[in-house]
Amino acid sequence: MKSYMILCCALMAVAQTARAQNPTIDQQIEVTRQYVPEVEGARKLDYRPRMNDTVMLKPEIDYAIRPTPWRSVFGTEPIAPVGISTAEYARPYPYYLRLGGGYPGQSLLDFAVDKSTRTTRFGVLLNHYGEWQRRQIPVTEGASLMPWTTNDVGIYAGRDFGRQSLDFRADLQLDYFDAFRLTDTRQGYFNQDLDVRIGYGDDFTDLSRFNYRVALSGGIAQLAVGYGRAEVNLGGRVGDGALLGDVIFDGWWTSAEASTGSCDWYVALAPRYEATFGRFGLHAGLGVYVNRYKGIRHAGDETYNDAFYRFFILPDIDLSYKVADAFVPYLRADGEQGDGSYRGQHMFNPYAQGDQVQRPRIMYFGGGFRGQAASILTYDVQVGYSLAEVLNFKLMENAWFDAFITPIDLFYVDADVKLRLPVGFSLEVGVRYNDIHPRTDRIASATEVVMPVGTGITPLLVTGAVGYAWRDKVFVKVGVEYASQRYAATDTNLYVAVPGYVDLWAEVMFKPTRKVGVFVRGGNLLNQTNYRYLVYRALGANVMAGATFSF
């Protein structure tokens, strides 16, 4: 569901399955409740894309992860580099391979095998992306080769039984990266994440009958954090609409002794009703949560390691009126919660080594208008207000990050426009403005701080891209992203300004046949200084070339 400096909040560790056509692919969308993505799209908290999803649904050239956390809420909609489409991958070729390399040192490997039939599914996935660049060591004068790699191997299987289906998926993610250390200059880390999911039931595409689905998932991360989830989805047609509901248990725990360990679990009931009355669209529901957390928490200047319960209700409302396909005003109120465990933190910042914290939460209220015209123009403009608790990272002495919860108020304005002409040209533009104010002052400084530091939330983000496709043979795209200055926290309770940057990129793909393609991509062509995380710089000007094969 994209890539600059993540000093961010951790997101949800709960999942919903979105299914492609033949072959059927399960993409895990990390949300707190079930939903089906549509063209008019529900905006959800962003998540770190698992690379197997990237391969199966949209294998893109650029795997770098930009540090705008919760991008769907606090940033513009990401504009993806050109890649093979879902429909293209779904052609009857059981094998897919992509190889690439670049300068400065980059490596890329995607391999997928799909042996699906009309009623059964089976596939194996293997993915790798690495950066191998020399980086300046803090404090010292020298530089050192510091690899940063993400690796994933997965297997999925499924079978249809009439109207229901049984689906299974297992993924092992193994990332390796080097972190700065003042004592020995750097230290290597392996991050392990084993995730297993199984589910049985309906796909909720035909609500004229009663639908149900039962799903179980769980795993272990970093050999230290276990997590699990059980979910029951129910739904069917009632009157002119559909009544749906989810019952959820979700939690994580550490392997430490009871006196020092942490755990966080919640149970939730989330009913909702969806209907269309002529031009009026209704989606109304709520989520009722009981959350228990035990571990480190901060209250003012005090730190506690104890257990406590929270009971809260989050809204789930979307009202729209279709004046025409090209103009649909809407109002929205929604709420979600994230994951404060070490696993959740690591999904966005591998250098996070601090305590587990309670789950961040968000409620947002807004409205705007959206529309589409003749499959040529699609747009969405909205204004809103968010009341949130976000994860705030601060840089510690040895260049690792600790996290704490910061409550904020956020006013935002967002606009996204996509134009696709029949002659092959496309234009995509996105603008996001965030006005952020902390509700508690956790960062002291002699200079007034007008926004919470360490969240990675950018006050202004502008994206744009122009593309051209010729006869399904040649694809060209040029894009730019501008991010304004933001702030990062340090262990001395001060802040440092991270300068804004402009990322200009371009890419070309040539497909001499349906089975073979070659590509070249240049990133950060202006050689701007940018940070994946504070003190951990992203690539400067770089180029990657490679080839794709379907056979």
Question: Can you give me a brief rundown of this structure?
Answer:
4% of the residues lie in helices and 60% in strands.
Walk me through what this model shows:
It contains 4 helices and 28 strands. By secondary structure, it is mainly β. It has a 22-stranded antiparallel β-barrel. A two-stranded antiparallel ribbon has the order 1-2. The model is unreliable at about 1-90 and about 440-450 (pLDDT under 50).
Major sheet description: 22 strands, antiparallel, barrel
- What is the approximate shape? globular
Beta-strand residue fraction: over 45%
Q: What is the multimeric organization of the chains shown?
A: single chain
Distance between the termini: 27 Å
Q: Using DSSP, what is the number of strands? A: 28
Low-confidence stretches: 1-91, 441-450
Task: Kindly report the average pLDDT value.
Answer: 76
Number of contiguous helices: 4
Structural class: mainly beta
Q: Radius of gyration, Cα only, in angstroms?
A: 23 Å
**What share of the residues lie within helices?**
under 10%
List the helices and strands and how they pair.
Elements: E1 15-19, E2 26-30, H1 51-57, H2 71-74, H3 86-89, E3 95-103, E4 105-114, E5 120-136, E6 143-161, E7 164-181, E8 185-201, E9 211-221, E10 225-238, E11 241-254, E12 263-277, E13 280-299, E14 302-321, E15 328-337, H4 342-348, E16 361-373, E17 377-395, E18 401-420, E19 425-438, E20 460-470, E21 474-483, E22 486-490, E23 495-498, E24 501-510, E25 516-523, E26 531-533, E27 536-537, E28 542-550
Parallel strand pairs: 17-22
Antiparallel strand pairs: 1-2, 3-4, 3-28, 4-5, 5-6, 6-7, 7-8, 8-9, 9-10, 10-11, 11-12, 12-13, 13-14, 14-15, 15-16, 16-17, 17-18, 18-19, 19-20, 20-21, 21-24, 22-23, 24-25, 25-28, 26-27
